[in-house]
Design goal:
By secondary structure, the protein is of the alpha+beta class. Helix content is 36%, strand content 17%. The protein is built from 13 helices and 15 strands. Strands 1-2-3-4-5 form a 5-stranded antiparallel beta sheet. It has a 4-stranded antiparallel beta sheet with strand order 8-9-10-11, covered by helices on one side. Strands 13-12-14-15 form a 4-stranded parallel beta sheet, with helices on both faces. The longest helix has 16 residues, at 286-301. The protein starts with a helix and ends with a helix.
Length: 328
């Protein structure tokens, strides 16, 4: 492993966020040291400090110090190889059999960022759909998750082709074989962020046509995955079956991520939920029940138990539940 590759991990994670995620008690830029057993009289004061733009730590009592990798090793009691593997799931890097670290997303995702910036915000039709009786999202939630709409299909296609190569746009699923915009009918676009960058998008039709959803041609990630790094040990997080369920849960003050079906869940993601109170809240139907069992078994195979949130039978999903509650 080269030094530059290892630095990618060190530079991609805010060490204070990681400390909280690992269960350390943090106050401003200090924390109670995980190594307090080696302090005099088991001193457990806020002696561990963070510095250099939240990339390093040092305890001024016992002297333990290092990067996010060293912090993870120290708290978890694991070796370097394990620490790198676990942290790679957070940073978007993975360790290959050659023991080299490479970026998971090989295809250029810059067009996604450009598309979101160019189409920034939603038009009135999309806003009415998202805030109406089908979704119930607030304008604040729409802005928070940076949803946008394709307002002029031809103009957007021309913009993309002027700024990026056609083959590049086709590879990630923004253009089809005829060089037309793929998201022609699916005007509501939900961006998926990882480490603060868009790595996946999903489009939704609002005209009643099918298919309802269309995805870009990139590896799917957990929706709202960056939220996991900000949670503290013992915090509750809900895993939903769709992005709109996750957004409405967040809107009402709950921590939530979303999967695009159980088949889209990668077993290596289980490590991201260690120490959290994880609750499965999939669709309230036969398929959802089967998917819940399958997902629960994936977690259990990794030594992590999860809870299941059962909705009253009259509600088909989380969104349906909150929309009904809103009207009462």
């Amino acid at each position: 492993m080269s030094e530059s590759q290892l630095n990618k991990i060190k530079e991609s994670i805010d060490i204070i966020d990681l400390a909280k995620r690992l269960g350390l008690e943090v106050k401003h830029k200090q924390a109670r040291c995980f190594n307090y057993a080696k302090h005099k009289n088991n001193d457990n004061n806020f002696s561990l400090g963070f510095y250099e733009n939240n990339t390093k730590f040092k305890c001024f009592t016992c002297g333990v110090s290092g990067s996010v990798v060293d912090l993870y090793m120290g708290v978890k009691g694991v070796d370097l190889k394990t620490a790198i593997k676990d942290l790679s799931d957070i940073t978007g890097l993975e360790v290959l059999p050659t023991k080299r670290i490479v970026e998971k997303v090989i295809k250029n995702t810059e067009p996604l960022e450009a598309l979101a910036e160019h189409c920034k915000g939603v038009d009135s039709e999309t806003l009415n759909y998202l805030t109406g009786d089908k979704r119930g999202l607030s304008e604040l939630t729409i802005e928070r998750f940076k949803l946008f709409s394709i307002k002029d299909y031809n103009e957007v296609a021309d913009y993309l082709k002027k700024n990026f190569k056609v083959k590049e746009l086709q590879d990630i699923g923004l253009l089809n074989d005829k060089e037309n915009l793929t998201f022609y009918k699916h005007k509501v676009v939900v961006p998926f962020y990882k480490a603060g960058k868009i790595v996946f998008i999903q489009g939704r039709r609002i005209d009643g046509g099918t298919p309802k959803y269309i995805n870009c041609s990139l590896p799917v990630v957990l929706f709202n995955i960056d939220k996991l790094l900000k949670l503290n040990k013992g915090d509750t997080v809900y895993i939903c079956e769709g992005v709109y369920d996750a957004m409405i849960l967040e809107q009402y003050g709950y921590n939530a991520v979303a999967i695009l079906g159980v088949q889209g869940f990668k077993p290596e993601w289980v490590g991201l939920f260690k120490g959290l109170n994880t609750v499965l809240c999939l669709d309230n139907d036969t398929a959802g029940e089967e998917e819940t069992k399958e997902l629960a078994s994936i977690f259990l195979s990794k030594g992590i138990e999860v809870k299941v949130k059962e909705l009253p039978e009259e509600f088909k999903d989380v969104t349906d539940y909150f929309l009904e509650r809103k009207t009462k």
